[in-house]
Amino acid sequence: MGTLLLWPATALLGFLLSTAVVVILGASSTARYEFERNGARTSEAAIARSMSNHPAGRRAAAGGPRPSAEGQGQVAVAVRPVEAPPAPAATAPTWWLVGEDAQVLSGPFDDKLDADWAALAAELPAVTVYGARRADGTIAPRPSPEDRAWLAELGDQLDRLPEDWDALLTDTDPLTTLVVEITAALVEAGLPLYDANQETPTGGVWLAPDTVTCGVVVSWRTHHRLSVQGSRGPEADGAVQELMNGTIADVLAQLGFVVEMFGPAGSTMVTALR
Questions:
Q1: What would the pLDDT profile of 136-154 be if each residue is shown by its tens digit?
Q2: How far from 38 is each of 4, 24, 31, 51, 255, CA to CA, in Å?
Q3: 216, 270 Cβ separation under 8 angstroms
Q4: Which residues are bridge partners to 94 per DSSP?
Q5: CA-to-CA distance for 104 and 220, rounded, in angstroms?
Q6: Which of 50, 133, 207, 223 has its CA 20 to 30 A from that of 255?
């Protein structure tokens, strides 16, 4: 009987020991799982706090979906005010065809010849004007490059006038206007003024004021070699001066000036421009 009772008792004791071991191992695994889970939550919270304090702020993961506006709330957007377009600025000066109402009919053109040909080909009742186009379609006239070059050349010629003109030349004096008109006509005809300031004057037209008649005395001066050095004799010098004085008088008369003979040498007195 003792032997028969020993084996069941041994089996029951082994079962109880095995059950105790299983319970102990299960409790240990559960505690370990809870510890690791609590540690992970603590790490995630610390990382979240560090990201919220970062100077760059919270960012979505690269490549991940962006948070929707509903989840993040409304964000104020700065609206830039719409500025009115600036008024068209005046264009650079060039050539234009302008009608009777001062409005541009055609253009721009590179030069005056192109504008004139365009007006002729299109039979436009227009005039050629150099200037800058305004916003309203009209032209603000400007001196053309040719005009500026001409004024510079004319100024160089007027600088050759003798000292007798220094006290007379003013912007409002009619004699000043007359001498400028005469100089322009002579230069356009290819006749330069005499420059007495040169070491060896090359010859040209001599202009002297006459305050009594309010006119300009016009005469020809030959080259210094002929007039002073007498390279061809005094008769040749006198003949050339007489011939050139008559030619200058005819030229000025053809260009619209009132001329009359002055003095025994055949000089010309110019009193007005018709």
A1: 888 888 899 999 999 999 9
A2: 53, 21, 11, 20, 114
A3: yes
A4: 131
A5: 47
A6: 223
Residue keyed to tokens 């007195």: 269
Read off the tokens for 200: 């060896």
Token pair recorded at residue 183: 């100089």
- Amino acid of residue 273: L
To 10 degrees, what angle do helices 234-254 and 174-188 make? Answer: 110
Distances (CA, A) of 58 to 52, 65, 77: 6, 14, 19
Token pair 């030069």: residue:
111
Per residue in 92-136, pLDDT (tens digit) is: 889 999 988 888 888 889 888 888 898 888 888 888 999 888 888
Inter-residue contact 98 to 126 (CB < 8 Å): yes
Beta strands 139-141 and 204-210 are: unpaired
Give the closest residue to 119 by CA, choosing from 144, 102, 98. Answer: 98
3-state secondary structure the chain: CHHHHHHHHHHHHHHHHHHHHHHHHHHHHHHHHHHHHHHHHHHHHHHHHHHHCCCCCCCCCCCCCCCCHHHHCCCCCCCCCCCCCCCCCCCCCEEEEECCCCEEEEEEECCHHHHHHHHHHHCCCCEEEEEEECCCCEEEECCCHHHHHHHHHHHHHHCCCCHHHCCCCCCCCHHHHHHHHHHHHHHHCCCCECCCCCCCCCCEEEEEEECCCCEEEEEEECCHHHHCCCCCCHHHHHHHHHHHHHHHHHHHHHCCEEEEEECCCCEEEEEEEC
What does the alpha-carbon distance between residue 117 and residue 99 come to, in Å, rounded to a whole number?
A: 15
Q: Which residues contact 84 (CB under 8 A, 6 or more apart)?
A: none
